Amino acid sequence: MSPKKLKINFHKKFNLPSSDQILHALNTPASYESLQADLDFRYDKKSKNFQIKTLSLNLFLKKIRPNDTCCLIGFTEYDLYVEDSDLFVAGLCNGNLGVGAFSIMRYHPKLNFSEENWFEYKQSKICDDKTWLMRSCRLMVHETCHLLGLAHCKYKDCCMNGSGHLKEDFKQSMFLCPIDLKKLWLILGFNLPERYENLKQFFVKNKCEKESKLLQKILKDLENFE
To answer: What molecular functions are annotated in GO for this chain (predicted)?
Structure first.
């Protein structure tokens, strides 16, 4: 089926920043409840599933991106595609526009997807929201770093490693290697111990014991180094 236009309520499905600057620029009320966009999509009548064409979403994000930001990311549970031949895409960065749109739909452990048809998938009884969260966080770090100018890492086990399929993606590290960490520091100029402490608190809060212990060790090493 050829793409048509789909009206999406972004307040419900997209984590867009609550920015007075955006709302003022769009002359909208102080809420995203009325913020909508016409997006290209494809639809399967039998399954009643659909995918959003990512470029149309990125063009919308460009319109609402505040002038004082380096990038804007759309984060959704809707499935995405770029070309008609695609089974799916996890997302798409448009670095020249300073925007990216990404889907976490195929990162949930309870969903089993067809390798032939984009519209076919089944749900299992698995309930593992922590795995979904970790996979989604890794995706967002990876793609945000792309928007900031980092390429795929070829040197070490790193969150910026490239992947050819989801199984490979799921095995990647949660963390940047020293090389890409240095690149990110040169771009953003953050406080390294403070960054690791914030990361540790995030993993502790979400009961990720392995990551929490690793970050605690890194923080101790930084104290000894100082």
So the answer is: metal ion binding; metallopeptidase activity
For residue 5, name the pLDDT band (cuts at 50, 70, 90). low
Among the listed residues 116, 120, 143, 211, the single catalytic one is: 143
Q: To which residue do tokens 């809420």 refer?
A: 31
The CATH class of the 1-149 domain is: alpha beta
Distance of CA 125 to the CA centre of its chain: 25
What is the Cα–Cα distance from 139 to 218, expressed in whole angstroms? 23
| Strand partners of residue 102 | 75, 91
143 is catalytic: yes
198-217 mean pLDDT: 92
**DSSP β-ladder status, 111-113 and 36-44:** unpaired
Q: For the chain, what is the total number of helices (H) and then of strands (E)?
A: 8, 9
Q: What are phi and psi of 188, to 5 degrees?
A: -105, -25
Tokens of 81: 């595609």
Which of the pair, 84 or 32, is modelled with greater confidence? Answer: 84
